Amino acid sequence: MSISSDNNSVPRLVIKKVLAKLQKEGEGAIVRNGITEIDQKLLDPFVLLVEFSLSLSAGFPDHPHRGFESVTYMLQGGIIHKDPKGHKGTIQAGDVQWMTAGRGIIHSEFPEEEVNNGFQLWINLPSTDKMIEPKYKELSSSDILRAEEKGVEVKVIAGDSMGIKSPVYTRTPTMFLDFTLKPGSQTHQTVPESWTTFAYIIEGDEGVFGSLNSSAISAHHVVVFGPGDLVSVWNKSTSRSLRFLLIAGEPIGEPVVQCGPFVMNSQAEIDIAFDDYQNAKNGFEMAKC
């Protein structure tokens, strides 16, 4: 997977675009839901994508998760993360936390500054991995590999691009790239043909995706690509940069049942997860605290 292409590449065209509408979620939290339940089958293995803005009055006290991985990527401010087992840290601007919930994690998330903006992506786990031991992988901004060429900068959080390969291991094979295209520049990124692929536009209103003849798509849209192995993007603006996340992953092809903080394969497994949490067992022992 690189920025180069050849004549045998099959371009991925845009098959769907969705505006992630702004909405309030509790005190001091404003979110845009980029992936909703209706799109989970189309975007397998991805379950949720939220762009969030939190003030100091917001926050999420201790809550559980099971059955998936979450990726928190901060753009501004910071999120203080803590769990009952004593793991504590702050995800600062530019940092990434890759959390495997597995059989069960309980944690809290609270904003550090007056303005705290970022993304959280949920990636499903196959049934064989849903009950593995939980773990964290944290990357500081300085640890994230990046490359720049011909007006295109990419931060390689997972996967590879422009000859740079991220060392991050993902249980569900995943690509997570943060692109910035200067005015008039373009990029052509190869992606495994079988993988689900979408982009989320962070900034810029004149990005053209998939085909040079396509209409420009504005910020805060999710752009879903069809089959192929090459994603092409052009910034048609003469004055403003285009920034977007390019995310791809290998589909799992299993039933998905999500209820609140749990992502499992059946309603029966969801019921078990709630029972385990309420009774502080099978991965949620720290709920007693």
Automatic annotation (TrEMBL):
Cofactors (names): Fe cation
Pirin N-terminal domain ranges (all copies): 44-123
InterPro entries in the cross-refs: Pirin, Pirin_C_dom, Pirin_N_dom, RmlC-like_jellyroll, RmlC_Cupin_sf
One of the record's GO molecular function terms: metal ion binding
Keyword check for Metal-binding: yes
Alphabetized SUPFAM superfamilies for the sequence: RmlC-like cupins (SSF51182)
Zinc listed as a keyword: no
Key words, A-Z: Iron, Metal-binding
Superkingdom of origin organism: Eukaryota
Residue span(s) of domain Pirin C-terminal: 177-283
Pfam annotation, one family: Pirin_C
Cofactor descriptive note: Binds 1 Fe cation per subunit.
PROSITE patterns: PUA
Residues binding Fe cation, per UniProt: H63, H65, H107, E109
Biological-process GO terms, alphabetical: abscisic acid-activated signaling pathway; blue light signaling pathway
Sequence similarity: Belongs to the pirin family.
Name of the featured protein: Pirin family protein
Organism from which the protein derives: Arabidopsis lyrata subsp. lyrata
